[in-house]
Amino acid sequence: MAFWKSITKGEESLRIIKTIRGQKGIDNAIANGTKLIIKNVEPFSAVKGKYCIVRNKKSSKESKIFDFRDDRGYSDDYEIVKDWTYQYHNYDFPQEAAYIIPNDIKEGEIVMIDDLIENFLGYHYNQGGSDRLKSCKAIWKDNDLQIQYNPDIDCISAVG
Predict the structure, then answer these.
(1) pTM (whole model) above 0.85
(2) Which of 98, 78, 83 is nearest to 27 (CA)?
(3) Residue 97 burial (10 A CB sphere; 0-12, 13-18, 19+)
(4) Of 14, 33, 51, 66, which is least packed with CB atoms within 10 Å of its CB?
């Protein structure tokens, strides 16, 4: 049973490595003889977003705004209920996850990991937001996946 497929980027065709999240899925894969690399999932405090809560003075309706340029943060029609602060994104990931490794993977093979377990920054906004990288290339080396993260290429830095 093939849990992977390949994608083509330009002239390069890469096999996709899938991820299982949660002990039940990992136990089922082990019972089926699937080759896995099991890892613990760690929180990533660098991933955050900024927000402010404002209240309309006439309707008393509260709104959460995420951009400093949002007019409601400066309008006389609104008052700030909670000043600008940061929130960490709560990813609902189980504490354990595993990469499904094809039996025929070759030493030095470059693959694409579809759902990274490790935490790498994939997006950074100069006004305070950030997000984790979802997928990345890796090289199969010494019975492990060596993630090929390059922040200059894999992390989007937005200014605005």
Answers:
(1) no
(2) 98
(3) buried
(4) 33
